[in-house]
């Protein structure tokens, strides 16, 4: 499909007033035909109010190259078509480009809502300023490490032309962040319970780690196997999603939750439970 350009077919609708002459597409069409990424350009007119250009691009519609080509086509249209001419794009490439832009644009709103809501809930539950900050930092570290592994495996090692599904960052972020936060609550709640009873932060960290390591590891193993099963499907987007979530769970349940979080809480000591304006917050 990528070779013959059919998969990258884009329809450009050029409306014009009813009864007016067809849109002058000569210069625009010539520029498109000269582009090595274009295999065929066909111009149609209904004789009344619409001119349609069918542009068959060579790049696969779900590739970065197709998105770049789509932007170049609109740029060319703005320069070579009559001033003020409206251009409406349709087809797989146009749809996926719009979807990618919408997903990436919404990612920052999702990120802000998730971080603010998570911080507020952790602050209320644990009555600590540093616990939410540490939790968000560790979760974001896990997400970044996951995206790094995903890029290495499915882009760098896969060779030229390999791409990651445009919706994957948004979906993986929400799933991974939620699972990481669950493991964080399991561990820190155990630590907080022991600290509240005895006030010894070091003993509380050891107690929490000893009583949550096994259930967190077992739960993570189940989730990793479940999502990892998607890697044996024939759909690349399922493979990428399964790999990303499984890798994130393994990273979080081992390096993050069993090493980094206990180490940080041990180093911070009583400051883990500090809350400004709360008397005796060092003892929770």
From TrEMBL:
Source taxon at top rank: Bacteria
One cellular component term from this protein's GO annotations in UniProt: plasma membrane
Name of the protein in its database record: Membrane transport protein MMPL domain-containing protein
Residue spans crossing the bilayer: 106-126, 133-154, 166-188, 216-236, 242-261
Domain (Membrane transport protein MMPL): residue spans on this chain: 39-276
Species name: Nonomuraea diastatica
Membrane association type: Multi-pass membrane protein
InterPro entries hit by this protein: MMPL_dom, Mycobact_MmpL
Entry keyword Secreted: no
Localization per record: Cell membrane
Primary localisation category: membrane
Transmembrane in keyword set: yes
Keywords: Cell membrane, Membrane, Transmembrane, Transmembrane helix
